[in-house]
Amino acid sequence: MKTIQVYRCLCDETRLRILNLLLEGPLCVCHLAAVLGLEQPKISRHLKALKGAGAVETERCYNWTIYRLAARPNAVLETNLKCLQDMRGEEAVFAHDLRQRARMFKELMAESCCELPARLRELCRESSQTV
Amino acid sequence: MKTIQVYRCLCDETRLRILNLLLEGPLCVCHLAAVLGLEQPKISRHLKALKGAGAVETERCYNWTIYRLAARPNAVLETNLKCLQDMRGEEAVFAHDLRQRARMFKELMAESCCELPARLRELCRESSQTV
DNA sequence: GACGAATATGCGGTTAATCGAATATTCGTC
DNA sequence: GACGAATATTCGATTAACCGCATATTCGTC
User: Fold this and answer.
1) Residue B4 Cα, gap to closest chain A Cα (Å)
2) Can you count the helices (H) and strands (E) in chain A?
3) Residue A64: strand pairing partners
4) B42: which nucleotide lies closest, measuring CA to C1'?
5) Is B79's Cβ below 8 Å from some Cβ in A?
6) Per residue in A24-43, pLDDT tens?
7) What is the domain class of B2-130 according to CATH?
8) Chain B contact present for A86, CB below 8 A
9) Domain locations in chain A?
10) In this structure, how many other beta carbons lie within 10 angstroms of the beta carbon of residue B90?
């Protein structure tokens, strides 16, 4: 049952925190790890689980892998992403992560050393239309 | 995080099947077990998990324990119960269980040997108003 | 093709979930 | 208070999830 796989994804705090961040826009692994304050291998493994359940999609950008929410999530997933968005206020972790993200994103955008910021900016523009 | 506990509940097929049945109305343990074709201790254990997550409530009726959906489920749970209802058509198990339930319920109602049928009928009438 | 940054995977250990089978509890009846 | 029906719990075993740590892979640069 595909649905169960989705629920299995959602019953881990780290994965919920990742989804919470991706609701704001795409991010690559290293920035997810930095924002969440967790080890990179841990993030990678959770991202793999999320991808396996069809929750996220990836795109290579040089040696970064950019993760974003799936463009066509199944019904259950879509519903729960909306739930997550509504729930942000009630959970301090989510709010905290979003603040961290905002700060880190600002820094990243200020750097013009590589092409990642440009691509992320593009993706953000796209996703803010669909979400 | 309370939400995670809810998701943990939802990522087991047996529990989803139980919730699917309870969406139609309250049932006691032995009938749940019979309809699902599973052992009674297994059902009891899953019901305990559901109760722990605030998904179901109980009521004693002689030596039966009647289980029903929680009157005030939290937001995430409520949303996913609606999802479950929408999803019934797509999952053969759910449809099959509902047919089994209908048949068994009809038989049970025909019996006038005990007070269980009467109470169940009452509860069904109530719940069909709220749901 | 060697190097470094970013990402992914393998491995061993620990904890949590689930199960079947047996047993305990609860409650009404006699 | 003994009995039986319905339900709940305990036990040991198996499986799955998660983690930290180390290592492998990928890809662009020099």
Assistant:
1) 5
2) 7, 3
3) A61
4) C19
5) yes
6) 999 999 999 999 999 999 99
7) mainly alpha
8) yes
9) 2-130
10) 12
